[in-house]
Amino acid sequence: MNRNQINLLFLSLLILAGCSSTKKKKDIKIKSPNVIFIAIDDLRSELGCYGNEVIQTLNLDKLASSGTAFTNHFVQVPTCGASRFSLLTGRRPSKMTHLQNDAIEKEISDLPESETPESFVHHLRRNGYYTVGIGKISHSSDGLLYGYDDSVSTKRELPHSWDERPFDAGKWETGWNAMFAYADGENRQSMKKQVKPYEAGEVDDDGYPDGLTTNLALIKLRELKDQTKPFFLGVGYFKPHLPFNAPKKYWDLYERDSIPISSNPNIPKNINKKMSLHQSGEFNNNYHLGDEKPSLENPVSDEYARKLNHAYYAAVSYIDAQVGILIEEVNKLGLAQNTIIVVWGDHGWHLGDQRVWGKHTLFENALRSTLIINVPGTKHATNSNSKIVETVDIYPTLMELCGVAPPNDLDGESLVDLISDVNANHENLAYSYWLNGMGLTLRTEKYRLTKFINDEDPIFELYDHEKDPMETINISADYPKIIEELLPLLEKGYDGF
C-alpha cells in the first residue's frame, strides 16, 4: 500500500468516525426540565434558612441547602392579586389597575389571547410545556372568577395558560370558602366574620384545604411522570394567610414562651402615618372574635402578640410539611434530577412590626418575601444569596432555565448567573408600589427611598439599611443630597399611573 492509499484510507476512517460520532450525538436527547412552582401566600422570609432559629421549616431549609435562597427578594406590590400579576407577566406596575387584587381579571381574563400580557405559564405552554395549576397561583384559588360570597362561575381567570386547572375544595365547596377555611367546614364568609384569626384544629393535614391541595398534587405528579412533554406544575398554598389555622400538631411543635415577638413594634420616627401605615384593617375587619384589636394608637399586648406569632409559625410549619410531602414524591418518582423547584412568597407580612398586623405597606416587612430556586445538576454558588432581586426576575429566570426564548417586553432580569456565581453582574435594585399615598419605593444595597406622590408636594422617606435595618427612623430631612442622588433611579421605575 503506497502513501496515497494510506492517506486515503486514513481519511475514510476519519469520515466514518465523524459520521458515527454525529449519529451518537443525535441519539442523545436533552430533555427540557420540568418545573414545580410553589406559591405560598403571605410567607415572609421567616424560615430557618433565612436565619430564624425558632421556626421549624426543615423541608424548605433542606431545599434551600441544595439550591439558593435569595434573602433580599422583594415583591412589586404588597397585596395578593397585584403581586401575582407582576409575577406572571414579568412586568412592573404601569397603571392603577396593576396595584389591585383584580389586576389579572382586568388585564388578562376578558381579552383575546393576542391582546393580553402573556403569563410565563402561557408562554411555556406555547413552547411545548404541559401546564397544570392547583390552588392559589394567580389570585383565584380555583382559577375561576367570582366574588367571595358568589356561586362558582365557569369564567377562567387565566384562560390561555393552563392545560389543566383542578382544585379540591373538599367540604368547603368553593375556592374562596377554602381560602378562609376552619376545620369544621365553616369559613369566614359563612360565619359572617364572627371568627378568631387563628385555630389549632384537631385534624390531620387534609383537615384543611392545603392538605387536599397536596394530595391532588401527588396524583397529578404520578400522571405527569408519563407525559411525553416536559411539565410545569403550579401548586399554590393558602397558609400562612389569615386565618392562621393549622392542625394542632404543628402548634405543638413550639413552646409559646420560645416564640419571639417583633423587635420593632414602634411607629417609625418622622413619618406621615396616614401615608405609610394602616390600622390593620384586614385583621380587624374580617376576624371579629380576636382577643384584641390592634391599632397604631394601641398596640396589642405582648401576650397576644406571642399567641398570634405562634399561630403564624404553626401555619408556616404546616405548609413546610406539605412541601416536604411533595418533594418526597418527586424523589420517589425519579423526577428529581430533571425538575426545577421554585418556592415563592407573594409578599411579606407585618407581625406587629411598626404596630401593623398585615401587609399593604412599603416597608421591608411587607415587601420582602421568600424566594428559593433549586436547579438539579447545577453547582449553586451559595445557598444564601443577598443580592437584591425582584419578583419580575422570576419570569426571565424560568425561561432561561427551560431553554425558552423570553418575550421582549419583560422588566426583570434572569437570576441564572447569580445561582452559579454570587459575584455575577446584577442591577441590585428593587421597585415596589402601593395605593396608599400613591407610593413607590426603591431598595438599593444601602437605602430604601420611598416617595408618596398624591400631594402637590411629595413626601419622602429614606432609611439607611446599614445603620437602621429595621427602618425605625426616616432620615429624609437630614440627607437631601442622598435623595437627590437616588431620585433619578426611583423615577426610572415609574412611568406614571
Break the fold down into its secondary structure elements and pairings.
Blueprint: H1 3-27, E1 34-40, H2 58-65, E2 68-74, H3 80-89, H4 103-109, H5 120-126, E3 130-135, H6 175-179, E4 198-201, H7 209-224, E5 231-237, E6 244-247, H8 248-251, H9 273-276, H10 281-286, H11 302-332, E7 339-345, E8 350-351, E9 357-358, H12 364-367, E10 371-374, E11 384-390, H13 394-402, H14 416-420, E12 430-434, E13 439-443, E14 447-452, E15 459-464, H15 480-492
Parallel strand pairs: 1-5, 1-7, 2-11, 3-5, 4-6
Antiparallel strand pairs: 2-10, 7-10, 8-9, 12-13, 13-14, 14-15
Helix pairs in contact: 7-11
Tally of structural domains: 1
Instruction: Catalogue the unreliable spans.
Output: 1-30
Strand order of the largest sheet: 3-5-1-7-10-2-11
Strand content: 15-25%
Reading the helices and strands in chain order gives HEHEHHHEHEHEEHHHHEEEHEEHHEEEEH
Any idea what the shape is?
A: globular
First and last CA, distance? 84 Å
- Whole-number average pLDDT? 92
| Helix content range | 25-40%
CATH domain topology? Alkaline Phosphatase, subunit A
CATH class term: Alpha Beta
- Rounded to an integer in angstroms, the radius of gyration calculated over CA atoms is 25 Å
The profile of the biggest β sheet is: 7 strands, mixed
How many helical elements? 15
Secondary structure class reads: alpha/beta
Query: What would you say the CATH architecture is?
Result: 3-Layer(aba) Sandwich
The CATH superfamily turns out to be: Alkaline Phosphatase, subunit A
Number of strands: 15
Provide key terms for this protein.
Alkaline Phosphatase, subunit A, 15 strands, 7-stranded mixed sheet, alpha/beta, 15 helices, disordered N terminus, 497 residues, 4-stranded antiparallel sheet
